[in-house]
User: Which sequence fits this backbone?
């Protein structure tokens, strides 16, 4: 199975991508203070995020899903938050369009972080999966009855998925240092942005969608296990863990008590959320816009305090947690 031609082709592709990355790094290093240590010019960067719907490219069968997203303004909300908070070095154009690069079928961010493509058939697929969910999956009590329909779930899960792409765009434009896989960091930004700025809806809707996708994927494959993304079902639990950890008093009963997030994972979630929240505020801090700097600095400082407090609390309960596993 390992000698299968497809896998060797994948390895080759990875080797080439590695070479390109090294080349890219060399160019960036020659660029002197371009991404160096706080020369005071970052806040002057004035790249802006814009969202464009290329309506004339969209096929009739995808118009319904696109209308749902357009009306919900979830893409514009994320764009507004980044425009307000972050001084981007370059413009970022978000294109909802059928005119995508060859082979693109999902939402993708280009390597330079300056274009995000959202293909309309991808939105239709999400909506179809969620139409099936509302007919076949019992609504989690935490998720409001009034939003448990295909359209609202599509908008909320797209808000999370778009947060993931925005995470990629920020990492690539700002050359953020990664201490783990970029895909994990992108999922992390989706949690960071939506939990802080929107509420629990996007994380829950994304968990509901990814759970359905995992069911459709069925048995784990070699490609799935070796993906640069965590396996789909694991991402469901990551989304829920960050949400639960962000406010355990509010979410423990409805997520852990109700059996959606296992009791073995739950004790780690408050500290995991605190690390993520502190991590993203700290990553973005050198790139805050002038108007956001005071507010952002305060958020970073309070995230730091929270991380220290959660680490202490975790330490105090560690014996009990370990004995309970
Ligand atoms: Zn990604």
Assistant:
């Amino acid at each position: 199975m390992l000698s299968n031609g497809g896998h060797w082709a994948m390895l080759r592709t990875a080797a080439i991508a590695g070479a390109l990355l090294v080349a890219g790094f060399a160019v960036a290093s020659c660029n002197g203070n371009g991404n160096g240590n706080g020369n005071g010019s970052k806040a002057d960067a004035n790249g802006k995020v814009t969202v464009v719907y290329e309506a004339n490219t969209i096929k009739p069968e995808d118009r319904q899903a696109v209308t749902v997203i357009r009306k919900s303004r979830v893409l514009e909300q994320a764009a507004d938050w980044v425009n307000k908070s972050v001084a981007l070095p370059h413009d970022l154009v978000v294109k909802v369009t059928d005119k995508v690069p060859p082979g693109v079928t999902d939402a993708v961010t280009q390597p330079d972080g300056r274009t995000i493509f959202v293909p309309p058939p991808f939105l239709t697929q999400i909506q179809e999966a969620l139409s099936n969910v509302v007919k076949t999956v019992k609504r989690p009590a935490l998720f409001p009855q009034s939003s448990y329909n295909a359209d609202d779930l599509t908008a909320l899960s797209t808000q999370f998925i778009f947060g993931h792409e925005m995470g990629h765009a920020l990492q690539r434009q700002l050359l953020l240092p990664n201490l783990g896989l970029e895909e994990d960091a992108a999922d992390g930004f989706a949690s960071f942005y939506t939990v802080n700025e929107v509420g629990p809806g996007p994380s829950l809707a994304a968990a509901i969608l990814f759970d359905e996708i995992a069911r459709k994927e069925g048995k784990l494959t070699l490609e799935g296990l070796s993906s640069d993304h965590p396996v789909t079902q694991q991402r469901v639990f990551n989304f829920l863990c960050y949400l639960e950890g962000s406010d355990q008093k509010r979410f423990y009963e409805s997520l852990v008590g109700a059996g959606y997030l296992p009791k073995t994972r739950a004790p780690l979630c408050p500290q995991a959320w605190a690390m993520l929240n502190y991590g993203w505020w700290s990553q973005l801090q050198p790139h805050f816009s002038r108007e956001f700097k005071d507010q952002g600095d305060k958020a970073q400082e309070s995230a730091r305090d929270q991380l220290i407090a959660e680490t202490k609390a975790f330490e105090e309960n560690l014996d009990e947690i370990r004995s309970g596993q």
User: Anything to note?
Assistant: The chain has twelve helices and four strands. The chain has one domain: 43-324.
